[in-house]
Structure formats: C-alpha cells, structure tokens
Specification:
single chain; alpha/beta; eight-stranded mixed sheet; six-stranded mixed sheet; 23% strand; globular
C-alpha cells in the first residue's frame, strides 16, 4: 500500500547529495509517494540551514499530513533549537497518524517530544544512511556472503512493517555470556531455568537512542522522567571509556536505577589502543552490570549499522528474555 513520506532536514547539512537522491528513488521504487521539503538540501555552516530554516522545516513536516516524516540525516543541530520546537503541532501530527522517524541527532527531538507531550516517535533509519546506500556498500558482509546490495533487507522489512501498521515487535539473540544474578529483583517476574535466566517485564515504556545525545539532555526540561522504563542505547565513534563515562553520568544521575532494564544496541567505529590493556566494550558492560540490580541486555540490532530494527520510542512494551533469546513486543498496544 502506497504511503506518503515527507523528507526534511532538521540537523546537519546533506553532504552526500547522491545518497539523498538514491534514497528518494528507493522509497519511490517501493511504491511510496515521496515529498521533499523545500529546504531539505539547504546549508548554513554545518547545518541544513540556519535555526529558523530548520524549525520551519519541522513545522512543514508536522503540517504535511504525511504517513511518515523521515529525516534526511543526523549529525548535529537539534539540541540547539529544542526550546523553539513546535511541540503542539508535532503532537497533533502524531495523533493524526504521522510517524516521525530517525536516529542519531534525532534522539534529541524524540526525547524532547516525549518529555513535553508524551507522544511516541520511531527510532529507525534516516534517508541517506538507510535508503541511500550504494549497491556496492553491502555487496559483501565481511564473511564472504554477497547480498543484493542497496538498503539492508531487515531494516527495509521493519520499515515496511512500521509504515503499514503491522510492526508488533522485534527479537534477537544475545552473545554467549551469562546474564547477571542481578535479575533477581522484585521489579519484574524472574525465574531460573538451569544455567539460563528467563523473565518478563510487562508494560515498560521503551525509550532511549543515541547515548551521547541522551546524556546531553540530562538536567534539562527535554529529558523524559521515565520510571520503570526499558532504556535502549547506542552510539558511534565513541571509545569504550567514553561510553563508560556517559553511562556513569546516567548512573550517578539516578536514571539507570529507575529503569526496569537497560538494552544496549550497537556501539561501532571506535579503535582500541595499546594502553587500554584489555579494557574494551565488554569491560564496560561487565562494570555496568556490577553497578545495577536490573538486567543489562546486549546486541540489540539498532544503531549506526545497516541492519537495524525500528523501535517505538515512548510506547509501552513487553520485554521477554529466555536464555540468549530476547523479544521486545509492542503489537498488543494496537
């Protein structure tokens, strides 16, 4: 079923115009009507237009009546205009059925909208990195498996599920590592099954996004006060010690202990150095688990990676864990 997709640029300037054009053509090839905002390719300093230009683009996206409002790319730019976002217009657009989709810098928009209006948005692809990739970009996956090229099939399928209103949840497997004994808490039902852990968390608000952007909102009116939520996090080009430092901020601010689960997505594009001496991402995960009495799950297929699911930010969700298998379910809310 054809849907109306509105493309706008609320953050960084589009530098890869070819990827932008490929993304538009790809969405059109999937049968959708694509409307491009008049300022989508604007440029001012590193931004997609000055602040007023980008605020006007968000206003037009909210007024478009589109089924989906998708950002062209992330970068940086939304945190500086959060005080002037058209929150009422965005909330009304969401109520009418427009799904706002994006990731990375878009986390600032998503969390601010959630904090100010309670309205849900979708963590998912942007136009350029999601649908504008070249046919050669993922022709080989590093394991010698050659695919069809172009956008990732799982991402595309999840996007179609979302846009058609058929998405009900997502599932994945954790790496072979023991779940912490800390899952034994009264916050949720938990039981032991041999050496594996099994538990269910019912109706936790799913929220989160890019770790660095989320941390930048702590202490502001744009940081949602979520109690008993399911917090998911990802980031790109951040060394594990920087990831730990940001998690420490959330820990000391009391944010992590107020959640019922922490779900870590993909942390990519960093380089370890000799003086790390064994300190790596898994070291951070182990440390985090030692600090919390709630489960810390890993390997969520979301982040700055081709294969990513779409996640409903601000929606009540069930988290089901059985051993290494994890499910996030939100379809029962429809």
């Amino acid at each position: 079923m054809s849907k109306h997709i509105y493309i706008y640029s609320p953050s960084g300037a589009v530098r890869d115009k070819a990827a932008f054009r490929r993304g538009v053509k790809r969405l059109q090839a999937l049968g959708h009507e694509v409307e491009v905002d008049e300022a989508a390719l604007s440029s001012f300093q590193r931004f997609a237009g000055d602040d007023a230009t980008r605020l006007a683009a968000i206003q037009r996206a909210a007024a478009s009546g589109a089924d989906v409002a998708m950002i062209s790319r992330g970068g940086y730019g939304l945190t500086r205009i959060l005080g002037d976002l058209p929150y009422k217009a965005v909330a009304k657009a969401i109520e009418r059925g427009t799904q706002f989709v994006g990731l990375s810098d878009f986390t600032a928009f998503q969390l601010a909208v959630l904090a100010r209006t309670g309205s849900p948005t979708w963590a998912g692809p942007s136009l350029c990195e999601g649908f504008g990739v070249t046919d050669q970009a993922d022709a080989a996956d590093g394991h010698g498996h050659h695919g069809r090229g172009g956008p990732d099939e799982i991402m595309e399928a999840c996007f179609e599920d979302m846009i058609q209103g058929q998405g009900e949840g997502t599932g994945w497997r954790q790496p072979r590592e023991a779940l912490p004994d800390a899952i034994k808490t009264g916050a949720f039902h938990a039981r032991r099954m041999g050496d594996e852990a099994s538990f269910v968390i019912k109706d936790g608000v799913l929220w989160g996004g890019n770790l660095a952007v989320l941390c930048s909102l702590v202490g502001t009116p744009y940081f949602p006060q979520i109690q008993g939520g399911i917090l998911f996090l990802e980031d790109v080009a951040e060394h594990p010690y920087r990831i730990e430092r940001m998690l420490s901020q959330l820990l000391h601010a009391g944010v992590l202990a107020q959640q019922r689960a922490i779900v870590l997505g993909q942390f990519t594009e960093y380089k370890l150095v000799p003086h790390d001496k064994g300190f790596k991402l898994q070291s951070v995960v182990s440390w985090l688990r030692s600090q919390l009495k709630v489960p810390v799950l890993t390997n969520l297929p979301f982040g700055h990676v081709p294969t990513k699911v779409l996640l409903p930010v601000g929606t009540k969700t069930d988290l089901v864990v059985q051993g290494r298998d994890v499910l996030l379910l939100w379809g029962h809310q429809d």
